[in-house]
Design a protein that fits this description.
118 residues, mainly alpha, 4 helices, 2 strands
Length: 118
């Protein structure tokens, strides 16, 4: 899903990546979208609050969405890895949605693993 979002963002000229590891293969940034952002999602899952406190869960989502957007801002502002062209604030709900989907998939997968081990 994240790959599709970035692909559409590049296609509709919301963002561009001046430096790419594989410039002839794709217009996407390989390291950002196949290494860095998945690492953020992994840390999100590893540190997800085990309690069912709604406040902790909301703060957890808010923290990771803010960190991801700050990282994106600093990469776009201080390097040539990405150049946001428009709709910078659209990323906030999209990152939250992608984290939610990743967490739901992880819960479903873990549930299936527990059922096969019993």
């Amino acid at each position: 899903m994240a790959w599709m979002y970035v692909f559409l963002s590049v296609y509709f000229k919301h963002v561009e990546f001046p430096f790419r590891e594989f410039p002839y293969a794709t217009k996407l940034s390989f390291s950002l979208h196949y290494l860095i952002y998945p690492a953020f999602a992994m840390f999100f899952e590893v540190t997800y609050p085990s309690s069912n406190s709604r406040t902790k869960v909301i703060l957890h989502y808010a923290f990771f969405v803010v960190i991801t957007n700050l990282y994106t801002f600093f990469i776009g502002h201080y390097t040539e890895l990405t150049r946001p062209l428009k709709n910078k604030f659209l990323n906030i709900p999209i990152f939250a949605f992608l984290l939610f989907v990743a967490h739901q998939f992880n819960r479903w997968f873990q549930k299936g693993m527990k059922e096969t081990n019993t």
